[in-house]
Each structure stands twice: as C-alpha cells, then as structure tokens.
Amino acid sequence: MAEDKSKRDSIGMNMKGCQTNNGFVHNEDILEQTPDTGSSADNLQHSTTSILGSQEPDFKGVQPYAGMPKEVLFQFSGQARYRIPREILFWLAVASVLVLIAATVAIIVLSPKCLDWWQEGPMYQIYPRSFKDSNKDGNGDLKGIQDKLDYITALNVKTVWITSFYKSSLKDFRYGVEDFRQVDSIFGTMEDFENLVAAIHDKGLKLIIDFIPNHTSDKHTWFQLSRTRTGKYTDYYIWHDCTHENGTTVPPNNWLSVYGNSSWHFDEVRNQCYFHQFMKEQPDLNFRNPDVQEEIKEILRFWLTKGVDGFSFDAVKFLLEAKHLRDEIQVNKTQIPDTVTQYSELYHDFTTTQVGMHDIVRSFRQTMDQYSTEPGRYRL
Length: 380
Hints:
The protein is an alpha/beta fold and 380 residues long. The chain contains ten helices and eleven strands. Among the domains are: 118-217 and 289-315 and 356-370, Glycosidases (TIM Barrel); 238-282 and 321-354, no CATH class. The strands form four sheets. Strands 1-2-5-11 form a four-stranded parallel β-sheet, with helices on one face. Strands 6-10-9 form a three-stranded antiparallel β-sheet, with no helix packed on it.
C-alpha cells in the first residue's frame, strides 16, 4: 500500500508538471484532485506516454500574449509587419550615429584652433635689468637676452616676454616711460633690439613686450607740452582746478593713488592739479581724448613693424575715470574722511573699469589685426 501511494504521488506531480502556463494564473485556489486508486494504472500509462511522446506544440492561430514562450515570440518576430519596422529603426539609429560622427569631424576640422600661439606653451618672462649682463656694466641688457636664447629654447619655452625696456626713469620699475619709441641706453640700442627679435624668430619663438598705456613719466614730451597748454597736447592728461595755498593742496575729490594719499598733484606751471593713479611722477593720460588713443595706436604700429608678436598691456582697468569727479564711497563709513589715505579704504567705482574701457582695448586689437597680414598673429 505504501508503494502504491508513493507511485500515485509521483504520477500526480508528473501530471502537474506537464501543464502549460501561458502567462496567466488561472486559479491558484483550485484544489488538486486526488487520483482515483482504481485507475492508477491508467493514469500511470497516460502520464508516461505524455512525457515520453511529447512533440513540438502547434502555435498556429495563437495571438501574442504576455509571458509567451520564445517559440511563440520567434514565430511573431519573423513576420513582416514586425520585422520591417524593427529593421528600419535599427538602420535609422546606425545612420544617425554616422551623421553625428561626420558632423563632429567636420566641426573639428573647420573650426579655428582652440588655443592660439600665446596659449600653446609656457612663456619666459624676463626683467632685462636682472638678466644677463653682456658688457659687465652691472645691468642686464638686450644682448644678454640674445646670448641666453639657446638656454631658453632648451626649456621648451614658446614665447619670450620682455618687461619694460623703454627710455624711462627708475621710478616704479621703469613703468614711468619717457619715450615709448626708444630703448633705454642701459639696455642697449634699437639695433640691439632688432637683432634680438630676429634671433628670437630664428629659434621659432614668439616675442611679447610690456606696454603701459595708462600713464607716462612727467618728463615725457607730451606732459611737458600739456602743462604749458601747447596745442592739442593741452588735454592729453587729466587736469582740474584745485586749491593750493601755503604748500597745501585741496584736491577736487577724495580719489586716492594706488600707493596711498591723494591721486591729485598740483603743478605750478599750469596752476592746476593733474590726476595720477600711481606715483605723482606718472600722470594719467586722458583716454577720452581721441588724439591720445591715436597716439597709442601709432606706438603699437611702430613696434609691430619691428617684428613684435604681441603686447602685455599693464594697468588696463585704470584707463578711464568717471567724468563727474564725485567722491568715492568709503569702505568704513564711520571713518573720519580726512584719515582715509590708503587705497583699500575706498570702493573704486569711479576710477576703475569704466564704461568705454573695453571699446578702447577693442580698438587697439583692431589696429593690430588690420596691421597684420597673418590673422591672429598679434595678441593683446
């Protein structure tokens, strides 16, 4: 009896395992029927025949349904109405990828270089006076720079940047220029400079020089003519009436020099105050005067003809000042105004980055672009 019961359980499991689930749960609560002991032999024979003699199921006439077996899925996926849209979408995707690749390559080929020559490699900045001294007079010079070009090239440097070498006083590291078209004698001659430019280019290097358009030295010819109100030079600098009694000057406003104290200085020749953002020996040019802008452009052209590749403009944000000359706002509003003497004690809203400054710089760039026969050669 125990053997018959075990056999019936095995046959029942086989019968259940042969049922096909088409993705739907018909009824999980249907109780399994206990096989009739009287027909166990027939059930065993039927089950054995079903398992051993199973054949490929016939799916003809069957509609797609969720959870269908792969045999049914393959039957439908091969039909034209399913295959053709799938192939169309596939080839559209392939074509889109190819178009994107072609567009990317075209953009890379046709677009200008991401980096210009002054961005492609390191620059070597040289303060000439502390560089090599070729004539043993205690000052570095242009010939000394030329002698060291092999060393500079070995450093994989792409651009040489030479700071101010113009004729000037020793004030403020030679940024008070007396003549923008002359090489200071302690550095050599204009011929030395031309030889240096040629040697730099022979090494495959570029040359950038410092340029200081904001101000000049008070010994510059322009200033000497301006303080005597000579012709067009009268307004080359920023002049304004001020009170000067017993050696004491009452300036037009509270504007301060970068180095501290008032940025106005009284000139006894013109009997007015002139404005200087830096030292009193460095009066600011009046860039609201078109003649001044043209003078600067002529200086740029002069050095470009000498073979200079670009300029490092210094103190550009100081080119323009507000016309109204109103006092600048104190950082500490409770501070006594007469004790405000340091540059950091004011908000410089009226003496830096004024409207029109970028237009002036753009005009300088346009001058260089018009002068150049090689687009993008000269950089500001």
